[in-house]
User: Fold these one by one.
Assistant:
Number 1:
Amino acid sequence: MFRKVAVLAAFFLFMTRMAADPLEPLRIKGLWIVRESMVSREEVEAALVFARESGFNHVFVQVRGRGDAYYRSLIVPRSPYIRDSQFDPLGYAVARGHELGLNVHAWVTTYLLWSARTPPATTSHIYHMHPEWLDVNANGLSLRDIDLAAPRDKSFEGIYLSPIHPEVNDYLQAVFTEIILNYAIDGLHLDYSRYYDLDYGYNEEGLMVFRARHGFDPRAISLPRTLAAEHADGREASEKLTIWDDYRRQKVTELITALHAIITISGRETLLTAAVKPHAQVARNKYYQDWAQWLQDGILDYALPMNYTPARSEFLEVITGMSRSLPERLKKRVIMGVANYNQDAAATAEKIRLARLYGFEAVCVFSYDAHKTNLARFDPIIKMLNR
């Protein structure tokens, strides 16, 4: 309670000081376009024209949703939802987007593979081809054993590939390299570049590699994370847990590093961006998604924190935390993600205003699809973006 009061007090003081100051123009005005709008020429056209007419200058078009392709691929099965077998959604989006003056980013899911209540109908889908690549939690539950049709907890996101499996990152590099080399995209945008949760990453084959390298099985670590390591056994367990956490974190970082190198070697002027958990330390320590370090090391061009909360105080807590913790040069490489699917447009517009007041020069709205059947609902958002 005290922290919320302090945050609100800081907010009102800040607003009083900034009330008379004009908002700086936004460098990046982004819009996420979900794969449901990538199934036909008409859908893509409508989304891109709306983006251009509304003043957006970057679009993130989803072309890999759940282990499928909304583009021409020799590696990944084509999405069954694309109506015309001759239509190339990404190819059209890039060509038409550039005609309209838009920067077009290919938005791809990374480790999340599947989430529907029935398995993929396509037998060549990785879900069927490589079940040994799927992740496992600390209790030994493999995601390949999940009954997709069973009632599920609200926290269930889906079936994840395991970053520690020795073949998974190589596969993803091949998938994304195909896009980078075959399409004139302005950016590759990674989604779900993380683990399912804190206690995942225990894939069997991946553990064999870890044990051979480090000489212990992380499943045998019994030290509670909240226990102070005051005795020898506790210190040893704590050290092992640190090694294991660093290893899992490094596996995701290795993918980001490899993609950065591939783009550099290709000579393409392609940005590498990622949608990330908004609290940098939570992202790092719970999901092993070390995005602040990726920015620091220069292997990620922009991070898009998914600051989707409808609560103003929580949104403010995230942006004030980033303002305190990130140096100015890294702050300029943050594109603040703002939601419109879970709040009214006036609330979304207000959050864009807050981000701008705190010095964030780039925002991205999630998503076009939330209100594409009633585009008038975007009016307050568009007004704030272009103010």
Note: The first strand starts at residue 28 and ends at 33.
Number 2:
Amino acid sequence: MNYSTIKKTAVAASLVAALGFAESAQAQTPTVFGGRSQYRTWSIGVQGGITTPNVLVGGSNAFGQKVGYFQNKVGEYYGLTIRKQFSHLFGLELEGNRGRIKTYNHDVSGPAVERTYANGGQARSAEVDVNWAASLNGVFQLGTIDFLRRENAVNFYAKVGLGVMASNPVQFSNNDFTGTEVFNRKGQWGEEIFGDREAVGDRDYKLGAFVPVGVGVKFKLSEVVALNLGYTMNFTDDNLLYGPARTDYKGKFSNVYGGLEFTLGSRDKENLTFTNPVATLYDELKDPSLRNEVEALKQRVSTLEGTVDQLSKDSDGDGVSDKFDKCPGTPAGTAVDGSGCPIKFPEPVAQNNATTGAYYAPIQFEFDSSVLKTESYSTLDRLAKELRDNNATVTLDGYASAEGTEAYNLNLSKDRANAVKQYLVNAGVPASNITANGYGEANPVASNATEEGRIQNRRVEIKK
């Protein structure tokens, strides 16, 4: 894997991690899977294992041979992890490690190829001291076993990230990591220049970027502890990972590890790492207690509907429910007040017009409204017929109850008189035969201190 490929891999890893984080942030609260707040999402881990100087994808070693000639040697590798789980599919992990990577050239497995230095020393083995290696990884959970259970005991995952490593390679003249140290620049790193002139720095370790790519599996041991096993390939941009080598070589190594992961937070909450929302949904739907709760809720709704029906029952059809009707059995069409009792109108007055007709009760209106009630239509239809037949004139006087300001009530009373006039005009009465007036709160026919009185005062009187 060349440097360009490593950079592309790092960019791809960053994009995938960002997309996974965005997806998890947007999908925090599915209907049954109730979001991260009901789960434990933080964990820390300790791990240890071994390193080898090659990776599963193959490639050649730093001395130009195919893998197999330059032999693998096991080195130790150990570290810590801190992880935040954003959903059952994705989490971010901060990983830190240290240890050693070893490799050597074995005569039995192929030609004894060594690198010869100016001092006559020949490199036949190399040991890399990794002082520290830190990376930020996106962890993708790939699948679970027993997925129809609310929590799973086994969980597979893959991870990819980007990190920085501080290391120092030492090359030896023997293939067993003994003999003369033909290359060791500890305390002299800083200007990695080789060739015709010597470059001397003052650092014990050189820094290099690397991309970890790995897979693993976790086994749930308890509500707090899980066993974590994995394999990681590490690709670097460093052609000095094992010391001076081919200029086109970029170092790589892999590590196999095992460790324990400890979930943080209250034990009353489940571990999001081992939770499957599909299984949770299945369990919820199969849960007898949930069905009982639904049935109880349905019973409560049924009872509530019965209460509402009882409250809205109106046997005499006067618009006032039986529960609040103080005058049940009112004849159909009777104008009633808020208690369901008939409204008593003033006795009819003598008509001053030459043409005398029937008395017409005042037209009533709702509070703060100039909209005609449907029960007024029959009265106005009779009035319109009489006016048309006799070519008579009529005066409409509008009034309001005492709520609100006088100016507002004056305009409201005019609107009520004009609403009656417009109905008569639409029924064929010439507009010139109709006079509409508004008097606001004047001339109340009942007390404005009670609702019954105010209902009577919201009116239009018909005068012929």
Note: DSSP finds six helices and 18 strands in the chain.
